[in-house]
Task: inverse folding
């Protein structure tokens, strides 16, 4: 994959079920208030460590508020060498409405 793909929540759920990693790029307060269960919060301070420790061939789903910022972040991850990157259309807001039982609150799951 030379570029990222935009996907709907149902596709993201299928990827999660098959072991894809989900990263949330929203601010820490928003993440703590609610996020996709099992997702990892990353920001400008933690992204380098995340990339160093990541499996570049594993599917990666990037989540933001509404699906806009995640596209830029997904493109960045492709540039860093990730081979299978997805941006969640509708972001966490759409995810929360489609999969309310698949959300968590707090700083980490």
Result:
């Amino acid at each position: 994959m030379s570029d990222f793909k935009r996907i709907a929540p149902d596709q993201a759920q299928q990827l999660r079920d098959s072991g894809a990693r989900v990263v949330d790029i929203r601010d820490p307060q928003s993440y703590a208030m609610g996020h996709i269960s099992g997702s990892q919060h990353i920001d400008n301070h933690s992204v380098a460590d995340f990339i160093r420790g990541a499996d570049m061939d594993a599917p990666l789903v990037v989540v933001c508020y509404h699906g806009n910022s995640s596209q830029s972040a997904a493109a960045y991850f492709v540039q860093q060498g990730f081979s299978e990157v997805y941006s969640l259309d509708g972001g966490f807001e759409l995810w929360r409405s489609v999969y309310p039982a698949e959300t968590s609150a707090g700083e980490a799951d």
About this structure: Strands lie at 5-7, 21-24, 35-36, 40-41, 60-63, 85-88, 103-104. The radius of gyration is 12 Å.
